[in-house]
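User: Predict the complex.
Assistant: Input components as received:
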Amino acid sequence: MTEPIKQLRELVDQSERIVFFGGAGVSTESGIPDFRSTGGLYHQEWKYPPEEILSHTFYKSNPEEFFRFYRAKMLAPDARPNAAHRKLAEWERQGKLTAVITQNIDGLHQAAGSRNVLELHGSVHRNHCERCGKFYALDEILHTQGVPRCSCGGIIKPDVVLYEEGLDQDVLQAAVRALMEADMLIIGGTSLNVYPAAGLISYYRGDRLVLINKSPVGRDLDARLVITDPIGQVFSQL
Ligand code: OAD
């Protein structure tokens, strides 16, 4: 076992209220590209910049193009949890981890068995008609083409937070509470570039902060331990 993995294990062993805060890098080893890495979504050629497509204004003005992008790039129904998702779920079952706070919308933490998953940016698994509010599961969206329409004629909007849209207040509050009560915070697979999500980690007050990220992040962290290996590989050794 390498020294960083040994240190990480020791910190985990000493903790009882671990919170994990993650992003797209947690799912890259499940085959879902992240946003800002070289092979990431924001470096791909598309008719419009992906950040623009993923905005509320764009969704409203050009839903056809939005859903073309969304179906091609945001949905990965065949992706399966990797060792990081699985270990976090195991820690929760063991009573060591209180919450997973994620910016991901892929539902892989729940697929691995995690229960308290605070999805800051929503989920592709929940979809609602904008007109009548009817719920649609991901499977139903996958069986439609183009702009998905409800039986009432309204557009079915995925419950994902687009740029210019606010975050769910209940989810935010639960995340703040979990972070304030945490005795260890593991941040992984996120560039910490997107606010308000990235700002939440300031609510953690403990001294067991671990960062597991392949590249440097967008803010200064007073981390006890920094690991730059792929997060799935790291968790598979724990
Ligand atoms: P980013 O793409 O900005 O950052 C992902 C980070 O994960 C990068 O720093 C990578 O180096 C790192 N990474 C990739 N694979 C990894 C691996 N296997 N192990 C460890 N690290 C790895 O993704 P997020 O920070 O999640 O928001 O982006 C935040 C938000 O920006 C997303 O939720 C999305 C996007 O715009 C919305 O769509 C609202």
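The chain has nine helices and nine strands.
Let me know if you want any component modeled separately.
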